[in-house]
Amino acid sequence: MSQTIRIQLERYRPEEDSEPWQQTVEVPYHRDTSVLDALNYIKDHVDPSLSYRWSCRMAICGSCGVMINDEPRLGCKTFLREYLDAGELRVRAMDNFPIERDLIADIGGLVGHIESVDPFLIVDAERPLSEGENLQTPLQLERYEAFSECINCGLCYAACPQFGRNPQFLGPAAITLAQRYNLDSRDDGTPRRLAYLNAEEGVWSCTFVGYCSEVCPKAVDPAAAINQGKVSSTLDFVQRRAVDPVSTEDG
Amino acid sequence: MQSRQTDIVIIGGGGAGLRAAIAAAEANPSLHITLVSKVYPMRSHTVAAEGGCAGVVQDHDSTQDHFEDTVSGGDWLCDQDVVEYFVEHATEENLQLEHWGCPWSRKPSGHVNVRAFGGMRTERTWFAADKSGFHILHTLFQTSLKYPSIHRCDEFFCTDLLVEAGRCAGVQAIEMRTGDHVLISAKAVIIATGGAARVYRHNTNGGIVTGDGMAMAYRQGVPLRDMEFVQYHPTGLPGSGILITEAARGEGGVLTNRDGYRYLQDYGLGPETPPGSPKNKTMELGPRDKVSQAFWHEMQKGRLVETDQGDAVNLDLRHLGEKRINERLPFIRSLAQTYAGVDPVTAPIPVRPAAHYTMGGIQTDSRTQTRLPGLFAAGECASVGLHGANRLGSNSLAELSVFGRVAGEQAAQFAAQADLVSAAALEAQAAEHCSRWEALRTANGPERTSEIRDAMVNIMDRCIGIYRNEPDMRSAGEELAELKLRYREIGLADDSRAFNTEWLYAIELGFLLDVAEAMTHAALARRESRGSHQRADDYPDRDDTRFLKHSLASVERANPESAPTIDWQDVVITRSPPAVRRYGGQDTSLKEVS
To answer: pTM for the complete prediction?
Structure first.
């Protein structure tokens, strides 16, 4: 633990700071020290006023997303050893969200978008539990499985230039979640969700930069979900035109 | 101070809290339900459960077998009426999750698959690869969005229960974004705040698992029951304690010491089974208490593997092959690669026991009601009587659904016939709490939160571990009392309000110290060895004559600062009188895993 590395933190405390400022701290590290470990070290030993979110420290709870040297990363899944050549880490709250304090982004917009796409199983006819489980083959599960693994960390929103320009854009995680249910063999809710996906703030706002999938810490590939959403949206449009060439309302 | 009113307030947005919210909303859609959580619900620690969720489903299995496995796994300290209810309802709750979209892993036929788990004589653990808790939590969170009567207060930190005229009448919280105090009056309150393994240094838990609900109930005179029973999970990563699921052994992984020897056969769990052909309740599929105790003995014998993060044993999955590891244990592969620098396809994972789960908690009856009218508790924070002295893996995820639902329904029933206590009647005590928390925020004493916390976790690791002895436990009691005195001299560097985590960590530390004391004094009082509570030096055997009883740790009313008083409550025995626990070759009814 004798070696140290320099970490530059972007601080912002709404009660006393009119704008963000930079704080530089030397942190000891070993091979396994994560950025989250470093933040915990700073909080305990250098400056107790630093605030950030964290919990599981194993990349499953989704709390600790931050910008590290301008890249959206999970603090718990990023290691100081990766930055030895750079010689310094710069850590700040996730881009494209308002800052609540220090490294804490206001992710209310992200959670609101997730809530807005009816992300639950919608079935036309409820089956009683006494009839047992709905059958679903491993192949049917595989169609949506990757899209069900999103941890809602928000890194894809921090990476998305479109969300940065227009916070109303549903964004990668919410569209992926809608797609996760649309692809589930047990679900009948696609028509309802297509209304959101087809809307102005839905899939067509995406300009396919693809950075969302690059930064995803769980290999969910939201860009693929959005692309599939565009295909469903197009098919939906074409089908509705075929049924009723005059009106595209409620085909 | 802000003031709000609701019918039911639920503290905690993990599996139990969300299931309770949904149950209450379905039982009575006219009730206004408020779900308060110090994190966004999908961050709750249910998210980190990996292996699976128990529920009898195979034709050759039975709820009677699940009952017997749970009762003997708990070393006969389970309330058997509660276990009976649990095994009868676990499967329907798993099915309910399936109907809500949970992506359970499947057989080629499309039916739900089950895997082997420690202490279970038949495969009955439903799983979603090795992210079962994650998928259950996200399914429940997303499903909860269907119910307009569920209102969330995300990132509201509960500090106190409000009690008026002998009834729980609401909660007090801090809105983390602003630091404002909020009074929420309610007709019924459900605590679902999870466990407390953060009282230990080496633990599998997230940073948020700080026993908040347990301490809040304890401070209002509700006993904490069976707190001496802390489960060490046998396989955490050395250093971090990150959880490596028991499913790794359920799928056929083996544990070896420095000599490559399958040491579990020396501790009543053999005979040795061929690698890749696991046998239920045998060797690596023994119960967690015994597998962790075996590690301790290997440590005494100097047969551990040295790593730069401390001594360990090896969890070897190599014989499973890459395809099966990727299919059944993809998260484990990723965790081992990221946090131990090991690919389990080509090398064993170093592991050691880590504090994982509190079998005990807030005393409730079999229907989740505490002795304080209007207050209910469910999930890890509660002691409903299910787990006894040692929980079987995969029973706790099922517990969240089974007893989360019961708590929601019971609270709905209670709220329908109760009046709201007026906010005015609660304001005096709320103001008192407020001034106490404000004094803490602006405290400028010489003691630091992080130093007291570090001292506490070291005491607990050293003295209240896998094996305990009288002098260490006494010393722990004294040292914790000293820490509580130091806690009163605490000072904060940061007196701001908005998202002041130094302040919140200091409040959590107060909760943790209460819970650590309850664990320590309950452990001292239990002069026997049972399940996860082992006293090899002075009381090496189970003593059913004196200790077939639950411990109850309560605040000393006359002097709340002193150590808890310990009382006892009889265990409910219905159909299984206490007997010897039999594993491996001692149990003649066992078969190989299909």
So the answer is: 0.97
